[in-house]
Amino acid sequence: MTTFALVGAGPGLGLATARRFGTAGHGVALIARSAEHLQHLTDDLRRDGIEARGFSADVLDPVALTGALQDAAEELGPIEILQYSPVPRADFMKPVLDTTAADLEDPLAFSLKGPVTCVNAVLPGMRALGRGTLVFVNGGSAVRPHPERAGTSVAFAAESAYARMLHDALAAENIHATQLIIPGAIRPDSEHSSPQVLAERLYALHTERDGFRHYAEPMPE
Q: Which residues does UniProt assign to the signal peptide (predicted)?
């Protein structure tokens, strides 16, 4: 059994995607800051017969994040799929004219250094397997910067550039890096952006391995 590792586990999209990959036969490693939060999510998945475990780590802490991914691989099996989709903090979204250099430190650590840390942790195991998928989930500001959300816009652009370089650099090793852009809100009643629909889309990105950037729905005008 190989493992689906989700960095930024939550009760909406995260839980739906974990259930989709778990139902397909992967072990599920959920990574988030709160151990209590993780316990609720893993209990939910286990009721469906999915092998799931939680690992506490803050994406701003490279040592803890690396340790969580290494522990997940040791306990559940090698990580074949990594999904990086933590929700940015509200204070990352200052207007651009109110944003200082210091204001960009945490957004860049969150959306760039966090992904780099995760990839460096899982890449040796994927190479040993001879396959792997790296999935990056971002909002619309990753491709259309928003002047009222400067920190996230800058950080998502950096994450996108890094992910695109991974896509090109790792293709020959059968390791597929891909990005899903979700332009609007994730809502249970959304035709294209409900948690269940997005979970199916993310699973298809792993199995179909077609191209780098994909959109959950068209960008608004």
A: none
